[in-house]
């Protein structure tokens, strides 16, 4: 969905360098965002300052829009994972958006429902699946969806809800089994098809 065809005066294209913060957790929400180019990560920050990767947004994705429905502060921190171009939409409540761009308002309402469903699914996986299966699912998802990004063990651990040490140890096993590239310092699948087949074999065994 090209928001430029629906909103004109309320949008501003901004450039963000890799690792630059788009907005921080707890800050008063000021509109929402659309990824034009690049990659954005949504991070939960603990009381001790530790960050965990919750969601990933690539080109064509909206983020930060839940504030339209709740009128609350941003609950998480958004940061560019690559050099990115991001559109800021300066609309601060759902009623204003619905008046200016009803099709976009309807689309975002459906996106909220979809994200809630995804969150419930991930919570179920955290409770039902072993760390190994969560790691495999995460590796497949990130490399299938965002293959251009140099994923790290830490990021795979954060997204899968697993500590980094466990990820490194299991990825070593996957390298020895030929599932991941043995000569790569980072987790890199030899083949996504092979990775998917290996994941299915764990469900059977």
UniProtKB/TrEMBL annotation:
Keywords recorded for this protein, A-Z: Kinase, Transferase
Presence of keyword Signal: no
Sample GO molecular function, one term: kinase activity
Pfam families given in the database record: cNMP_binding (PF00027)
GO CC entries: cytosol
Residue ranges constituting the Cyclic nucleotide-binding domain according to the UniProt record: 1-97
Matches recorded under InterPro entries: cNMP-bd_dom (IPR000595), cNMP-bd_dom_sf (IPR018490), Env_Response_Regulators (IPR050397), RmlC-like_jellyroll (IPR014710), WH_DNA-bd_sf (IPR036390)
PANTHER family reported in the protein's UniProt record: CRP FAMILY TRANSCRIPTIONAL REGULATORY PROTEIN (PTHR24567), REGULATORY PROTEIN YEIL (PTHR24567:SF26)
Name of the protein in its database record: Putative cAMP-binding protein-catabolite gene activator and regulatory subunit of cAMP-dependent protein kinase
């Amino acid at each position: 969905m090209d928001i430029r065809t629906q909103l004109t005066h309320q949008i501003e294209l901004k450039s963000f360098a890799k690792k630059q913060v788009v907005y921080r957790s707890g800050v008063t929400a000021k509109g929402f965002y659309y990824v034009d180019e690049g990659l954005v990560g949504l991070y939960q920050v603990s009381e001790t300052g530790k960050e965990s990767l919750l969601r990933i947004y690539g080109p064509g994705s909206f983020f930060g829009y839940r504030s339209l429905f709740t009128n609350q502060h941003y609950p998480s921190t958004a940061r560019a994972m690559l050099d990115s171009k991001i559109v800021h939409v300066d609309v601060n409540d759902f009623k204003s958006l619905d008046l200016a761009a009803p099709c976009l308002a309807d689309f975002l309402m459906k996106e909220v429902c979809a994200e809630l469903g995804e969150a419930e699914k991930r919570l179920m996986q955290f409770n039902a699946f072993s760390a190994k299966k969560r790691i495999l699912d995460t590796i497949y998802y990130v490399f299938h969806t965002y293959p251009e990004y140099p994923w790290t063990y830490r990021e795979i651990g954060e997204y899968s809800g697993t500590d980094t040490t466990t990820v490194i140890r299991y990825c070593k096993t996957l390298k020895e089994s030929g599932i991941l590239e043995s000569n790569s310092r980072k987790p890199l699948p030899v083949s996504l098809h092979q990775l998917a087949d290996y994941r299915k074999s764990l469900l059977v065994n």
